[in-house]
Amino acid sequence: MTLWKTKLAAWLHDPAEKALVLLRDKTGHEWGTVAKLREALFGSRAIPTDIKPILERADWYAAAADRPQWPLEEGGARYAKWTQVDFAERPVLIHPLTGVAHQLRPLTNIPPEHLKTVSHDHFNGLILRDAEGRPDYEKTLLAYWRFGPDTPAKDLHHLWQNLPADTRVPDHSIWAHLDLVSALAGAMAGDPTGTPALLAVSFGPVQGFIAEARTTSDLWAGSHLLARIAWEGMRVVCERLGPDAILFPSLRGVPLVDRWLRDAMGLPGEWFQGEDWASSKTDANPLFAAALPNRFVAIVPTDQAASLAGEITRRVRDLVVKLGEETLRRILEEIGEAWRDDLPCVAQLKEQLADFPEVHWAAVSWSLAEGEAENGRPRTDTTKLREALARLYPEGEKVGFLDGEAWRVLSQGIELDGARFYDPNPGTLYPALYDLLDRVAAAAKTVRPFAPLKQTGYRSTINGEREWLTLDRSQLALPPGSRQDTLWTRLAAKRPSWVKPGEHLDALAAIKRLWPTLFTEEVRSIVGQDVRRYVVSTHTLALAVSMARLMEQPANNELETQAARATLNALVADDTLDSAALPRKLAILADKASADAARLARKLPALLDRFREAEDEERRRNLENTIKRALGSRPEAYYGLLLLDGDRMGAWLSGGKDGFALQYRQCWHPQIRESDAVRDLSERHPALRDYLNTRRPPSPARHGAISQALNHFSLKTARFVVEDCFKGKLVYAGGDDVLAFVCVDDLLTAMALLRCLYSGLTVPEWLLKRLDDRSRRRFQSGNGWLKLDEELFLTMGDKATASCGAVVAHHQAPLGMVLRTLREAEASAKKAGGRDAFCLRILKRAGGEVGVTDKWFRAEGDGAVGLLDALMRMLARKGVSRRAAYNAVEWLGRLPTRPDAALLRANLAYQFARQGGDRELALRLADYAARHYPEAAAKLLIDFLMTAEFLARNSRHPEAES
């Protein structure tokens, strides 16, 4: 237990309430709450002597990596007065990625003794003991890590979760600092030389594996399975060193990690009772969310890095083989075959899964930054680190951080009037170590050793790469159309939900196809009751627009409408019809609607599918005509698919460019930054002035902030937007990536709201108007923060951007083709749009394509999405002819490359007004195009008009006129 004792003592070296009791508590922060907790855990109020050197060194490294030292007054008893901040009196939080200062209300009304009592009771209640009553250091550390940041009192609420580690540099939380010190202490305690290392691990392939999908269920399964594989790898580190050892992604609050804490590590089940994952009976259960990226970075003991990487590789591949065997056993059982080791499919399974997934790893030891020890602590020495980095930079190019302005300033140390303000130690070199890790990891990916897989028969119908699994190898020579009595034809007859007629799957495709069934059963065992997973088909997503109108708009009194509704009600009364799974927001509408309307919404998709699969075109057309008479429009046949991706994430992590790094002065509390003392010292000490103006290099706290922001976005925000605010279905949200299906009438607004909340931007008024009252009340966004359902989240901030690809496709279009188009659209948003952009492409069933690629926002005012939404709604409005679009497009096509701006304004306004449209909107559009696209204004307007006209058609917009 020495490792866990060391880590627990490290995690307790500062009290959580430190920022609120400094300068207010005479006993000092080190002899209050933490002293009592140490006594309860270790039998002494002081730090245990056997681990004190490790803890002090870990704190020394962590502090140097994240913030400056501060000069002491003569005699070394107190910090200089100009550095002292009474945080309770002047509470300020600084956004770590933007530098924006957030002034909170004063907290002087909360007495220090109350704060200390609340904190002590909170942490004392998290101490776990063994059967003999002795503290269990490992479980207690896990409890502190997971539940320590949970607010222990209502009067502290949001502040507790965001309390700063240092009141003078309030840009990172106390929790981030405690996690880092614990991680470093554990790595130092676990290495014979006391040396930590950075370990990066990634799993693949990603895009190809996810894109091998025939159905929406396949798409979800591929994303979710990769997230599960990633957790299996991270779990190795968590079991050996604790979850605080994972620098990013942030694991606190991730449902898979919570489940591990409860079921594998023995944390009390009642502590998790309030979590949705422990009780939700539908696929709204967070366990169904694919919310982990395929890469992680951890702090580990140097001598364990290679063994950890080897264990991770073994564990993730064992998991895939285990899933493969369970999949094949279930398939064989379904078709009445017994498992035998000599079956061809068993051998195929082992061969095809042998090297999956690909695992790439790299490790960099802190020893590269350490020199000989002085007073028991290693000195900073960059000789080996520079040599290693130089090999990965082009010859003659500066070697990153070591040749940058920040290290030039920091390496010399800073002395102010005889007191040391900054004295670098090996922790200061975290930016260079991370740079080396990133480059070595990238190099490792270029080396892909694998054993060639010999495949001689026909390949899987999903990917065309691996043979389909067979009971008789001679069948692998049979071409499609000639295959009878194969494993897959027999399964299709028994379980059409697992495989469609004609499909023949390889091992990986089979795992993906059965993964929804296997994982649903797993969640059922966790929740302890029946769990239903709903697969929303592309057809249902398309029809959801019409179904929402059916439930939201009361039927008029026209006889034809009443007769049509009666006919529909009679048709869906068939008990043999399955109920279709609906997007969450539509399902809520159905629960509130009349019984007839709800039954129509749930069963019409199945009825249409029945006629289509039976190739009964006449009955299908008659049904669609009946729906048209009932709703006033034909049933919608198109759905939307969006892919949002954060821009320049590598640059955000590396902080290598000015736009991604703050000056040191921006991170200081305004009281210090703006003080006369700092101005005077800066004038007299050029070294301090240089320091304040230097761009801050990446640090563990910065990486933790990014990880925290992305964790909240993927776990909370993305699902809230896609499924609670709009009629959509989230497929994947892992860090800065979001993949989701969205009904076509909600696509523009869903894209825009995701973009705003990713950066914590103030949501524009036009977008707020598109939300219902409940959705608007649930969140507030601005200045880089998001308050959602009474929780306050850090976001990436307004300097961070994201790009989005979106596709509108017919529900019968091959999903593989739609996904390829989606990836192309996302790439176009980043390239043609210049990032912080979107690319919307509409794939028409009859052929042809229209779309818009543009920036989200413009500094001058109008944003492209808002304009496109306004144009769509104008063209859909009753009394407005869509000839406003057709006539304008015809005229615009004849204009020169650079049309006159006044001509654009006058003619577009005339065309709109003539057809009953909005003249002011025409002027805004013309000005926007002429200002931002002077060489292609006509083309941009044509793209806007044709895209908006398609989206405004009466089958897909509630305001459209029949």
UniProtKB/TrEMBL annotation:
Keywords: Antiviral defense, Nucleotide-binding. GO terms for molecular function: nucleotide binding. Gene3D superfamilies: 3.30.70.270, CRISPR-Cas system, Cmr2 subunit, D1 domain, cysteine cluster (3.30.70.2220). InterPro entries: Cas10-Cmr2_palm2, Cmr2_N, CRISPR-assoc_Cmr2_N, CRISPR-assoc_prot_Cmr2, Rev_trsase/Diguanyl_cyclase. Coiled coil: none annotated. Residues 638-839 form the Cas10/Cmr2 second palm domain. GO terms for biological process: defense response to virus. Residues 198-318 form the CRISPR-associated protein Cmr2 N-terminal domain. This is CRISPR-associated protein Cas10/Cmr2, subtype III-B. It comes from Tepidimonas charontis. The keyword Secreted does not apply. NCBIfam families: cas_TM1794_Cmr2 (TIGR02577).
